[in-house]
Amino acid sequence: MRRLIQIELQKLLLSKTNRVLIFISFLLPLTILILASIKINFFGFFTLELGQLGIFNFPIIWHISTFCASYFKLFFAIVVVSMIGNEYSNKTIKQNLIDGLSKTEFILSKFYTILLFSFLATVLIAVTTFFIGLYYSAYTEAAIIFRETEFLLAYFLKLVGFFTLCLFFALLLKRSAFALAFLFVLYLAEWLVFWGAYKIFGTTEMAFKIKGFLPLESIYNLINQPLNRVILTKFPDKTELAYDYDVHFHEIIIVVIWTALCVFFSIRLLKKRDL
């Protein structure tokens, strides 16, 4: 594994564009979290301090930070698809195979790099969230601080699942731009499935359950939106806003299965393809 990651990192870091995108994908979520945690004075008219709203209290901060940070995954997704696109455009994929790298190892080198970057991103979010929470949270008991840290696992799997899906599309289409565009096509297709399920079963609840088995929706469902939860902390009487925001084991399993399928079919596709 270490050898394959080293090979892939050498390729990635040779590109200035990839270095910038990797830097942004790590830095931007942290910057947003840090800026959100400080006082912002709007030209003397009023001062905005989100920490006073209680959103940085433990344990809700784990939910909010991972949900918000997950929206910046597109930057590294560009790096992921370029890992394949550049191999075809620069014809380095043939050279890798000539130099003794098997087709399985070629795909695994990409997947292991995805695991590494997803892990590092999760650690950075965890450390930043922890210290922001320590500064703002009204709760300092260890049992409360480390409650709901399963959102970090969900965040890690969210990144791995999404990036692996991008990897498969990039290999399937051989072009970075086409791979990212196909994500939008898949997004529309999943809503068509939702519409079809609604027509058949007649309820949005059943339609969403079926849509939840599809790749993009299952990845999104790992971390539900925290807005309703924030509102409920301030207005507990608004029971109509109550919802299930927990990380569920069956949702984790669905994403793990899709991730495994993307890796498996990527290997099969490369083995069958005439390079």
UniProtKB/TrEMBL annotation:
It comes from the Bacteria. The chain crosses the membrane at residues 20-40, 60-84, 111-132, 152-173, 180-198, 252-270. Pfam families: ABC2_membrane_2 (PF12679). Signal peptide: none annotated. Keywords: Membrane, Transmembrane, Transmembrane helix. PANTHER family: INTEGRAL MEMBRANE PROTEIN-RELATED, MEMBRANE PROTEIN. This is ABC transporter permease. It comes from Bizionia sediminis.
